[in-house]
Write a structure and sequence with these properties.
Blueprint (H helix, E strand, L loop, with lengths): L2 H16 L8 H21 L5 H27 L2 H22 L5 H26 L1 H24 L4 H14 L4
Helix pairs in contact: 1-6, 2-3, 3-4, 4-5, 5-6, 6-7
Length: 181
């Protein structure tokens, strides 16, 4: 498929999913919801205390991410503004990245490098999607290029586990697949 067809499909899907209606929320409801988000964060963080090592670190990062996404979601529901929707998508992307990156601490060597690159690629893709929904006209090509570059970096990192001709063939295949010279 060409980039133009893919871009058109992505834009269509994102436009369809971004057209959601927001119910009016009073200032009091907003304040109560904000307090609930804080309480949920404190409870989630407290539940992490029973864990040890990286599992505890992951739990804390998840709790922080959920709080950040919760606040962004609340703001988007309260204001209904496009900017708030964009910020929500960014908060979700960053929270997912932080958790994925923390989970990479459970592995070592090249597997860890690949894990981190995949997490970063996921972040770049999610941010690109957010850009696509924010400013479709100019961002389409840039966002698709960012996605392809992120996937290319992951593919090349996976090639590092190989040696000799196998590594060269792997890198060449990645360059061909992602239109890199």
């Amino acid at each position: 498929m060409t980039k133009k067809i893919i871009s058109t499909l992505v834009i269509s899907l994102l436009a369809a999913t971004s057209m959601t209606a927001f119910a009016a929320m009073t200032k009091a409801e907003y304040g109560m919801a904000k307090d609930q988000i804080k309480a949920d964060y404190k409870a989630a963080k407290a539940s992490c205390n029973s864990l040890n090592g990286n599992a505890k670190d992951i739990c804390v990062v998840e709790a922080k991410g959920n709080e950040k996404v919760g606040k962004a979601d609340l703001e988007a529901r309260y204001t209904g503004k496009a900017k708030a929707q964009y910020n929500l998508r960014l908060a979700k992307a960053e929270a997912a990245y932080d958790v994925a990156k923390e989970k990479c601490d459970d592995v070592t060597g090249n597997a860890k490098n690949v894990c981190v690159k995949e997490a970063k690629a996921g972040l770049i893709k999610a941010k690109s999607d957010a850009k696509l929904t924010k400013t479709v006209k100019n961002a389409t090509t840039d966002a698709m290029d960012e996605r392809m570059t992120a996937d290319y970096k992951v593919a090349v990192e996976k090639c590092d586990a190989l040696a000799g001709d196998a590594k060269s063939a792997c890198v060449t295949a990645a360059k061909t697949k992602f239109n890199k010279s």
